[in-house]
């Protein structure tokens, strides 16, 4: 019974998922402002590092959310509430993405960490629906652990010390990538819907490409 709940045929991208993806259009645009700092004809090294870290953080958040919806999503009220909370938190992440990011370091990392915790809680709540499915329980526990561990590093990076914030941000992203890879390799749980995943990824690529054109166009003058 519990297994049939997680198996969904012909899963389609819901309208709320599309609305959720729009916040990432805003986030990509905010990240692009970081590479507008030019020194001697090149992007400033500090701005480029900030751009890379911010971009990886946003992509990671999108991945965590998308894979949860893809494997365990039911398009229910609970999921809608969590998505709206994430959109609210991501707005503060975007507002903190600035050239003078040091002044907004605490706000950025606090909102980022809460976003990861929000997704982790969704996995944790989902655990009760898979009591009789060991493989799904395993991947849910591993993903919850991944999100909570990464969020701990992100919260630590909220301490207003620029060098510490940069190092811990990079460490949090790397830890998230490594633990996710290990989690997927050691567990056969979850039911990936490749058509749904492909559609979401394609839409994200379109958004990214559009924002990239806007960012590149600003470098050209008449």
Describe the structure.
- The chain is an all-alpha fold and 222 residues long.
- It has one domain (14-217).
- It is built from eight helices and two strands.
- Helix 2 (15-32) runs parallel beside helix 4 (77-95), helix 3 packs parallel to helix 5 and helix 6 (134-156) packs antiparallel against helix 7.
- The N and C termini lie far apart (64 Å).
- 33% of the residues are buried.
- Mean pLDDT is 83; it is low at 1-8.
In short:
The protein is mainly alpha-helical and 222 residues long.
Order of helices and strands: HHEEHHHHHH
Strand content: under 5%
- As residue ranges, the low-confidence spans are 1-8
Instruction: Provide the number of structural domains.
Output: 1
> What does the largest sheet look like?
2 strands, antiparallel
Distance between the termini: 64 Å
Specify the helix fraction band: over 70%
Q: Features of this protein?
A:
222 residues; mainly alpha; two-stranded antiparallel ribbon; globular; disordered N terminus
Draw up the topology in text.
Elements: H1 2-6, H2 15-32, E1 38-39, E2 42-43, H3 45-72, H4 77-95, H5 105-126, H6 134-156, H7 162-185, H8 194-217
Antiparallel strand pairs: 1-2
């Amino acid at each position: 019974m519990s297994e049939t709940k997680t198996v969904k045929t012909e899963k389609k991208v819901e309208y709320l998922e599309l609305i959720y993806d729009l916040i990432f259009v805003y986030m990509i645009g905010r990240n692009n402002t970081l590479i507008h700092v030019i020194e001697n004809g090149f992007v400033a090294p500090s701005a480029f590092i900030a751009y890379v870290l911010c971009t990886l953080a946003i992509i990671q958040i999108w991945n965590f959310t998308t894979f949860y919806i893809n494997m365990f999503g039911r398009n229910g009220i609970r999921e809608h509430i969590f998505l709206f909370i994430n959109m609210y938190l991501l707005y503060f992440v975007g507002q903190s993405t600035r050239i003078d990011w040091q002044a907004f370091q605490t706000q950025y990392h606090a909102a980022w960490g809460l976003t990861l915790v929000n997704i982790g809680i969704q996995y944790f709540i989902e655990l009760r629906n898979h009591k009789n499915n060991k493989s799904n329980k395993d991947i849910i526990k591993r993903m919850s652990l991944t999100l909570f561990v990464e969020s701990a590093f992100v919260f630590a990076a909220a301490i207003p010390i620029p060098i510490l914030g940069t190092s811990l941000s990079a460490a949090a992203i790397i830890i998230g990538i490594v633990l996710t890879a290990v989690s997927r390799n050691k567990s056969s749980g979850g039911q990936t819907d490749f058509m749904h995943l492909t559609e979401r990824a394609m839409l994200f690529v379109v958004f990214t490409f559009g924002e990239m054109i806007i960012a590149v166009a600003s470098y050209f003058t008449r």
